[in-house]
Predict the structure.
Amino acid sequence: MTTTSSAEPAPSLAAGVWDNHWVRFAVRRTGQLLISLWALVTASFLMIHLVPGDPVRASLGLTAPQSLVAARREALGLNDPLLVQYWHYLQDLATGDFGISMSSQLPVSQVISQRLPATLALAVSAFVLALLIAIPLGALMGVVTRGGRAQRTELSFTTVSVVVGAIPDFVVCVILVWIFGVNLHMFPVAGKSGLDSYVLPVVALAVGPGLVLARILRVEMLAVLQADYIRTARAKRLPAVAIYLKHALPNALTATLTLSGLLLSGLIAGTVLVENVFAWPGLGSTIVSSIQGKDYPVVQAIVLVYGVFVLLINLAVDVALALLDPRSTIREN
Amino acid sequence: MAANLVTELESTSGRRGNRSRWVTVVRTPVGAAAVIALGALLVLAVVAPILWSGQATRADTAQMLHGPSGDHWAGTDNLGRDILARVLVATRLSVELALLATLIMVVSGLLLGTLGVLFGRRVGRVTAAVINVAVAFPGLLLALFFAVIFGIGTKGAVLAIGLAGAPSFARLVQTLVSGVEQRDFVLAARVAGVNRFRILLRHVLPNVGEALIVNATIGAGSALLSFAGLSFLGLGVQPPDYDWGQLLGNGLTGIFEHPVAALAPGIAVVLAGLAFNFFGEAVAKAIGVTTTIGRIRVRVPKPAVAPDRSEADRPDGDTVLQVTDLRVSFPAAGGVVTPVRGVSFGMARGETVGVVGESGSGKSLTALAIAQLIERPAAVEAGRLEFLGTDLRGGGTAHRDLLGVHFSMVFQDPMTSMNPTHRVGGQLAEVARRHGGLSRKDANDRAVDRLDAVQIPDPRRRAHQYPHEFSGGMRQRAMIGMGLMGDPALIVADEPTTALDVTVQSRVLHLLEEIRREQNVALLLISHDISVVRQVCDRVLVMYAGQIVEDLPAADLHSAARHPYTRALIAVVPDMHTALNQPLAVIPGRAPDPTSYPAGCAFAPRCPLATAQCRTEAPPLETDAAGRRVACWNAEAPIEVIPESAEVLCE
């Protein structure tokens, strides 16, 4: 890629544009995205072919007549050479065609578009809640415990966040259901009805990542508060709030943001478990029932959707990081 | 021969003493608890099925879905089987499957991660790219993907969880291995022609083994949780077998009637996961951190020495700064250290005062203490600390606007002293907005004007840039510009040129000098470079071991310095006449450590004039008729020996 600039004898427009670190960043990041996307699509395509035995037979059951299996195989194009199937798969994906569900005979795209909004609503609200827990708590803990202050507070915060953060989503769900559903009857424990039906699933998803993030932010804050530029800010006699919020927090957030991206992708995966506990009508409950029912086209499509979301999240994190800390665009491997 | 050499190199590479470090794990409370918990878990996994299998499988139709009772502490399930027994018995399968999955994760991770070592750099780069793509996806999604391929059930779930963990483990292996690969003993083995497989097994893996074991342990914890998750979803262990995840899933369906059936396996999962995690973390901590210095809270005692009054009462209508008996102390392991011990001086408008001394002499701490920038646990005390007639003692927040407008600081390292995430102009404008009450636009205009004043070309464009787009010298000038946003009466510059090139240094010094002259600002210039101070300053304070030992006009430095330390500092400065083939001269000996100042004069151990009196009795800082001050019993004695006896630095 660098040859565009080195091939030119004199500094040209192309070289000038290439010298801009934002352009380099955009090109590099888009390249990464395309490669990952290709890997994802290929893996999803290969999934059905890696299943031992005949996926159609497995799906239809042992009692299904051979003629039906053969007809279904023909309809799915499973008898074509692998590369031809791959090509058709890519073509179909490009037109938004995810195939036909083996069990319901509905277009998979229809299943996805019905189920996706519920999952997104769940994941996004959980992510927002996790940040709402993590940023104030982590920043506050960083300020309070800086320079070895308030050691008892630090110890109890660390212990609580480590222990609670280590409890897996589905156990948190069970505990929440037991406390707020069974004992207190405060919130519904199944299905997606009103706003109150969001409370338990969202809290179950957000608590763990929120506390982990708060812990990381605290450590980052401690490091940033030691920095020379914080001393400069103090020498400017800024009020404490301005020093902590304006000068320390943005610098502490860069690392935290990177990790929050990881947590958000983890959160997408966490929705699978949480949706199954709360009978949430999203992709997570669909993928599990489809895996059990061997409805491979649906599974393939949902894996693809999850994967694309994860890639987009990673992209969003890198862009946010670049805006927050422009130095990150310069870094090249 | 080669093998011997390699073994020898390796033995010095820090693999010794591992035993004792592993033992320290048990000594911490968390470590001990983790070891006990993990041990109990493993014992339970072995004995539980032997002891309670009967109860766990015996159906009792008379007691279906009963709550906790004397017979069944955790109640019974829908076939009347004892839930507690089932949870205990399930320990074995849960732990076994988690360990099996971990084994798959470790083996496949090791294979992937070491391909580069075995088959060369190109293969390594390709696998690294593959791993990078794979680790972007969360483990549970990978596990679901593999679960589809390998099928529902115990075998499929073990493979799925093992392989899902492989990419991140492979990434870890790659990172660790590439760290060791460049070490001497590996390079030596490579030169000696040892084959790659052998290098990997004998020299590379043993050196990263500890870290891998720690991470595998933590990995086993998460494998246990993931397995419970898959079984909970019905994709893992299938009836009639049961593990915790499956018990939890079954319990959840009846949680309204019988919550214990869901809570008991949940608690088991959490406890087991924590046991693995805490054990791993405790070992990691013990291996990574060798010693910890305990923080000790100490009350900083009041100064025992009577304050030095010599300077305090000097009448001066034009005084900007008046400091008397300034002390800075820190709590430390042995009690309290006081790196600044009774500093007194005053500064008039437009005066330039230099503070010189070796590193550790307390110069910078003095500056920070005056600026009220010392934070707890350090404590600042002073007989007087007045800036423009206002007493600053008792905290800087009360005088925020006074200090913000009239007191400016310039710090040593311009690379780290500006906030990397804010535009330079904004960092300057902030001062005027906070303290001058200027609007955003006016403050920005003033920032551009100030950048122009410190000779930054194209200031309007530069104000929009970030600090990393500035050169070091330009950044330092921008820092000075920041100090000019208000109406400074005093600029404290702490080693403002140390981090800069020589040519840039003189430009920054000239700029400071110009500002002082034009705006009649007092300038306190802290430097370890006596020639810089001599060029710029009117008066020089020489500090040694936290005290001022001499205070004299800069013009007198060469001709009339009286303290042997000052004279030694001047003697060791290379000048145009220094022979280039001679090693650089240094003052013999070392500055005393703040934790153990000698009883008498702190310079006595290094002083060619030291007498018995010097070693027992600290000399007071005496003021002469001309206002010069010196703290030395033998201030007037001639020393011809110093330049000649100056030892040479041979390293």
